[in-house]
Amino acid sequence: MSNKIRLRFAPSPTGFVHLGNLHTALFDFLAAKSMGGKLILRIEDTDQERKVEGAVEKMIEVLAWAGITFDEGPYTQTERLEIYQKYIKELLNKGEAYYCFCSKERLDNLREEQQAKKMPPRYDRACRNLSHEEAEKRIALGEKFVIRQKMPLEGEVVVRDELRGDTKFPAIDLDDHILIKSDGIPTYHFASVVDDHLMEISHVLRGSEWLPSLPKNILLYQSFGWTPPRFYHLPLMHNKEGGKLSKRKGDAFVEDFRAKGYLPEALVNFLALLGWHPEGEKEILSIAEIIKEFKLKNIGISPAIFDIDKLDYFNGMYIRQRPLPELLELCQPFLAENLALTTSDYKKSNEFLIKVVSLARERLKNLSEIGGLTKYFFCDNLEYKTELLVWRKSNAEGAKASLSDLKNYLTEFSEEDWNLKNLEEKVVAWLKDNEKGVGDYLWPLRVALTGEQASPSPFEMADTLGKTETLEKINLAINKL
RNA sequence: GGUCCCUUCGUCUAACGGUUAGGACGCCAGGUUCUCAUCCUGGCAAUAGGGGUUCGAUUCCCCUAGGGACUACCA
C-alpha cells in the first residue's frame, strides 16, 4: 500500500455542470493540491440511459474555466467492463455475491406491498440461497440475471467518515443491492469501489448524499480484503428555501452563472467558503491562496444555503480587481447591443470603451449588467422626463438658467483642456467663485448627459463623451425646458 | 414508514470545557458626494428546546423538535 495522495472527481456525464458538481470538484482539487497529491478524473457512465453526448468535454472545459485541472484521466467506466467482470467473479467465488433472477415486475410488486404495509422496501433475498448449479443451469437456459451483494444478516456495520467519526448501521437495514445489472454493466457502487481501489485513491471527498451507501462500499472493501480510502462527505448546498438548487430558478448550473458574467475566481472563492473556512479572517482569497491554506480538518459538516448576495459581493470585488483591458474584453459580448446604437468611430474605439468600463465597473455585480448600465453613453437622443433635469427645490427656469450658464462656460474650453481633471477643478472653482449652488448646476448637467437618476458624475460623463457631444446634449436639455 | 446525517446572528462561518460568543454578506445609520455606486466609521443581530456530566457548557452525553439525504437493474 503506497501512501501517495490521490483523489478523484467522478461525475456522471448527464449534461450541464451542476453547482454541486463544481463544489465537489473544487474540494477534490483543493485537497489534492494542498497535499501535493494527484487529481484524477473518472467518468461514471454506467447508466447508459442518462448519458449525454459531449457532456464530458463540456465538463472538462467548464472546470478548466474555474481553474480546476486534472493530473490523470479521464478514465471511462464503460471502457473498463472486463475489469469489473473479473472482480465480480472473485466475489461470486468467495460467496460474497449471488445471482438473482427476479423479474422487474416481481420486484416492483414486492416494493409496493412492503410500502403498503409501511415496511421498509427491500429485496426479500429470494435468490440468495440458490445453489450454484441451479444458477448456472438457469443462466445456460438464457434467463436474465443480476448479481447482488450478500449483506450480513445481523449485527451492525461500523463505518468511518473522517469528518463525523464512526457511524453504526444495523445490518438488518442493509439491502442486498445490485452490483451487476442485467445488461452486464456494474452499478455505481460496485464500479466505484473497484476503480477507487485500482486507481489507488487515498481520499474520497464526495457529497454527503453518499453517506447512507458508505456501509455498502466498506463491506465491498472487506469482501475483497482491500483497505478502503479515507472518506469525507461534503455538506450539500441548498437554495434559500432550503430545497435543491434548480434549473428553473437558474441557480443550478455553472454555465448559467458564467453566461451572466460571474467570474471564475468569484465563484471559486465563494464556493470554497461553503463548507470550509480559512484559519484567518481574510475571506477574499485566490485559488492559489486557498490551496495554500486548505486543510481537510477545516471542512464543515452542516448543509449550506447558497446566498446569491454574497456571491454578488465577491463577484463585484473581483470585477473591480481585474485590469481594465481584460475587463473590457470580458464585457464585449454584453456591450454589443449598445455598440449597435451608434455609428461613431470614437465610440467603438478602445479609448472610449475603456473609459465606459472603468466608470461602470464599481457598479457591477456581474458583467451582464453592463449593457443596461452604460446605454446612455451610446445614445444620441436620450429619453427622459423633463422634470428629471430639475434639482430638488429648484425649478425649470433655474435648471434652464444653470444649463445655459454651463453651456457658455464650457464652450470656452479648448479641446486640450477638455479632460476630467480640468473639467472638475475649473467648474467647481467657477461655481464657488460665483457663489452658485453645486447641486443646482451639477444635477441638471449630469441628467442632460445621461438622462438617468443614477450615473457617473457629470465630469466623468463630459470627459468621456467629449466636448462636442456634451454641448449638444446640454442644448437638447435646454430646449426641453 | 425505516436508516443515517445536520442544528451558533436572516445567510456563510469562528471560538484547547473558561471570550464582552469573533469575522464576512445582507440590513440600518453616519462620513465622502450633484445622483447612484465605490470607499471609510459605527450599529442591529445567534448558541433550536429540555434534561444531565462539570466548579464552569456553544463545546461532552441523552431526549425532543426542526431540516436534509438515502431508501432504483440512477448516479
Report on the structure:
This protein is mainly alpha-helical. It is built from 20 helices and 12 strands. The chain has a 3-stranded parallel sheet with strand order 1-2-3. It has a 3-stranded antiparallel sheet with strand order 4-5-8. The chain has a two-stranded antiparallel ribbon with strand order 6-7. Strand 2, helix 2 (55-65) and strand 3 form a beta-alpha-beta unit. Helix 16 crosses helix 18 (438-450) and helix 18 (438-450) packs across helix 19. It binds one RNA strand of 75 nucleotides through helix 4, strand 7, helix 6, strand 12 and helix 11.
Could you describe the largest sheet, including whether it forms a barrel?
A: 3 strands, parallel
Strand order of the largest sheet: 1-2-3
Instruction: Please report the distance between the alpha carbons of the first and last residues.
Output: 84 Å
Q: Briefly note the structural class of the backbone.
A: mainly alpha
Which stretches are low in confidence, meaning pLDDT under 50 for 5 or more residues running? none
Shape category: elongated
Q: Give the total of beta strands.
A: 12
Rg is 32 Å
Beta percentage is 5-15%
Summarize the amount of helix as a percent range.
40-55%
Mean pLDDT across the residues is 94
Per DSSP, the total helix count is 20
Briefly, what is this?
Helices cover about 45% and strands about 10% of the residues. By secondary structure, it is mostly helical.
Question: Which labels suit this protein?
Answer:
single chain; 481 residues; mainly alpha; 3-stranded parallel beta sheet; 3-stranded antiparallel beta sheet; 12 strands; 11% strand; elongated; RNA-binding
